[in-house]
Amino acid sequence: IPNGVDTNVFRPIKKSVARPAIGVASDRPVLLFVAERPHDEFKGYGRLLEALSQLDANTQPRLLIVGDSAFVPASLGERFETVVFGRVDDERLIALCYAAADVFVLPSVEENAPLVILEALACGTPVVAFPVGGVPEQVRAPLAGRLISGHDAADLARGISDILSCPRL
């Protein structure tokens, strides 16, 4: 039996509603990264930061981070705007974060079948991830996002750019 999510909580919400509800402006693309322990090397946080530095200068994304904020470097805000929520236990708040994002990025190099992907997709947010563990069974590219064949930052940056350049319905 596949994992499931409560679609009464994790559901599409208009960005014009979700972003103000969590205090995020709508003036630029929003990327979301969720990890209980972002510093864990398997979560790919360093690879994500490197990918963001390779995005087109005009993109200037805002990065939302949900997870242990003690491991978010202060220098991160010098390169691009970062909103750190820290640990979020409220499902409705995390659903608003997913809905507010233009892209959910899962740069993990090891995973099983992460529930965060199902939650993001249920909120209507495309996913960019590496094809590890059960991720390819969850992210049906190109409709649900992009699976990045390499495990490097350049490929991750291209996947993020690709999603951001797609017209939204």
Describe the structure.
The chain is an alpha/beta fold and 169 residues long. It has helices at residues 15-22, 45-53, 76-79, 91-100, 115-122, 135-138, 153-165, and strands at residues 30-35, 62-67, 82-86, 103-106, 127-129, 145-147. The protein has a six-stranded parallel beta sheet with strand order 3-2-1-4-5-6, sandwiched between helices. Helix 5 (115-122) links the parallel strand 4 (103-106) and strand 5 (127-129). Helix 1 crosses helix 4 (91-100) and helix 2 crosses helix 7 (153-165). The longest helix is centred in the last third of the chain and has 13 residues, at 153-165. It is globular. 40% of the residues are buried.
Q: How would you sum up this structure in a few lines?
A:
The chain is α/β, with parallel strands linked by helices and 169 residues long.
SSE order and pairing:
Layout: H1 15-22, E1 30-35, H2 45-53, E2 62-67, H3 76-79, E3 82-86, H4 91-100, E4 103-106, H5 115-122, E5 127-129, H6 135-138, E6 145-147, H7 153-165
Parallel strand pairs: 1-2, 1-4, 2-3, 4-5, 5-6
